[in-house]
Amino acid sequence: MLKRLDKIRFRGHKRDEFLDLAESPNASDTECGDEIPVKIPRTSLRENDELRDPAGPGTINMASGVQDFNRTESDRLNEIKGHLEIALLEKHFLQEELRKLREETNAETLKQELEKERQRRLELEQKVNEILKTRTEELPTTQQPSKPPTQVNGTDKRSQMMCSRVQKWFYDKFGEYVEDFRFQPEENTVETEEPLSARRLTENMRRLKRGAKPVTNFVKNLSALSDWYSVYTSAIAFIIYMNAVWHGWAIPMFLFLAILRLSLNYLIARGWRIQWSIVPEVSEPIEPPKEDLTVSEKFQLVLDVAQKAQNLFGKMADILEKIKNLFMWVQPETTQKLYIVLWAAFIASCFFPYRIIGLAMGLYAGIKFFLIDFIFKRCPRLRAKYDTPYIIWTNLPTDPQLKERSNATVSRRVQTASSRSYVGSGAPTGVNKDEDSSRFHTTKRGNFHEVFNLSENERPLAVCENGWRCCLINRDKKMPTDYIRNGVLYVTENYLCFESSKSGSSKRNKVIKLTEITDIQKYKVLSVLPGSGMGISVSTPSTQKPLVFGAMVHRDEAFETIFNQYMKITSAASNSES
């Protein structure tokens, strides 16, 4: 648009230079008034002489000059209208630029903040004026009873002056600190959340890894000391620790180690190359950040971060749930041991001096860390039998484990009750166990054999008793409602059954005979996404394009089940024919 405006401007300047305005743009008559001064073209002396001399050689020039002079007023108005159009276009573009600048600078928010600050300033000025008025009103009332003694002597005036000076000095020195203790209402500030971006995600992952590196190195060094990775280092550390605990220098030793670590960090920050670690550090290659990521790379990055976050949150939840269940008597035999230990520690703290208790705890911690843990790590059977803290911690249940236990107990009770009722009522004669179980197997919409119009002997396999959630993609259909259908996939001994979830009629369900399948393979619906996909394609003679069962979470399990049953049926059919 700006280039177009420059072209218009260039054309306007050409109008001033050349007098022929036949190509000037037309405009509406309402854009300008009639009283507009008309410019008279200036002619040189030579042209005037030629115009005065009608018989001269410049008769042709004189005729053209007369035509230009006799131009109508409408042509000049068209010229002025063209200039007005250019001015209006310039005004429009300038308004657009001003609007963009206002949006970028957030002028409205700044104005609102300025208005708030002005209101606060006015409120403070009003408060200060009110305080000054109250003080001026209090001063005359206090000075009126003191007037009679001032007539007697002038010592009261001096005392008042001294008091005012002392008050002023005290306010100047300590007024700022007094104002700090004034209560003010808290302002609730809402933090703005950043939008999701792949670059920010990778940067935060690297920051977290760099920040957790000192902690992980410290834990690695402790485990190396306990595992006797370096025999000399572990032996020296064990002797120093036991000697410090025996003489009561355990706390000063830890404080000295902290000071030594800070001193080494100071020297490292100054440029010294100091590296002390029991376990040799392995430098990992730093990958440069990619600026432009493809859609598949971004999706894979989000999946990796989600997997790491899932595992990390799962471990943290297991630890917190175990601690909660330990103190809430969820497993009474485990909590009872902790209860007895706490009572023993309480009684010992009441009767024994703290020096003996600290010595006993320090010696036990050293022997446990350097000797007992080393033996238990090398001998897992001994650890499983005699390491009490390890046994207690591993036996503590989490909330999902408790839920599974409760569901298992409920299912056992239901099975025992159903078996008792089944035995009490008695089964009809001539019906075997398999037929009876298949007869009572139902889906969400009714009995299995009634939904798919199959014989009563056909029932889902034990692996897919509840079915697999998926969507059927029939590429032979053209209607969107028939092209994709959500539902559940079942596998029986002879059939592959798909139950649609949106319609109660059996017309939308799909039944495929396993012997009619010509090809079955894993399928990837979207080639852009990473991984091997979440679908299974099945080819039959009755369909031009293979049917696709997509969006299956347990795709591999379903594929193995269908393929094994297909191979079993085909091999049995080939054996019977031979």
TrEMBL record:
InterPro entries cross-referenced by the UniProt entry: GRAM, GRAMDC4, GRAMDC4_PH-GRAM, PH-like_dom_sf
Compositional bias ranges of the Low complexity kind: 140-151
GRAM domain segment(s): 446-524
Transmembrane segment boundaries: 250-268, 338-354
A cellular-component GO term for this protein: mitochondrial membrane
Keywords assigned by UniProt, alphabetized: Apoptosis, Coiled coil, Endoplasmic reticulum, Membrane, Mitochondrion, Phosphoprotein, Transmembrane, Transmembrane helix
Localization (cell): Endoplasmic reticulum membrane; Mitochondrion membrane
Pfam family, any one: GRAM
Bilayer topology annotation: Multi-pass membrane protein
Coiled coil: 84-134
Lyase found in the keyword field: no
Region (Disordered): 135-158, 414-439
Gene3D superfamilies per the UniProt record, alphabetical: Pleckstrin-homology domain (PH domain)/Phosphotyrosine-binding domain (PTB)
Any one of the GO BP annotations: negative regulation of toll-like receptor 9 signaling pathway
Main localization (coarse): endoplasmic reticulum
PANTHER family, A to Z: GRAM DOMAIN-CONTAINING PROTEIN 4 (PTHR37402)
Quaternary context: Interacts with RTN4 (isoform B).
Protein name (record): GRAM domain-containing protein 4
